[in-house]
Amino acid sequence: MHEILYFLHVSAMALWLGSLVALAWWSKSALQASDAGSRSWTLATVNRLTMRVAVPASALVLLAGLSMTATAGGAAAPRPFWLRLMEEGGGLLILASLFLVPWLSRRIRRAAEDKLAVQRAVRGYVAGMAVLAAGVAGVLLAVGLRLA
What we know:
Layout: H1 2-31, H2 36-71, H3 81-110, H4 115-145
Helix pairs in contact: 1-2, 1-4, 2-3, 3-4
């Protein structure tokens, strides 16, 4: 059972991190759109990818991680730093992603008519995705190196 949960956790994490990078790239390309129609289509695609890929992937990472923690003896067992960082820091990043990504996506969708408002919303969206992606990469690096 642990192996299946581990596979789900790692697969969903790859999908989640990849979607954060893809969403930042797609939203950035909306700023370079030549007309309002293509900009609107690109921003609608960003919104769909957010709600259909990024949010479910982050929720799956959280659920698989919590399930692995529960099957490994719960949170009371002593753990090394890298494992605590993965549980606590990773959990915080996932919860931030579950709330921040849809909120930023809604800001873009609401600003789709005004080009200046779209630029501000997209800059905030890209910054949010970059911070989340850097946080995820930092946790992955600490876990991968098994930092004590």
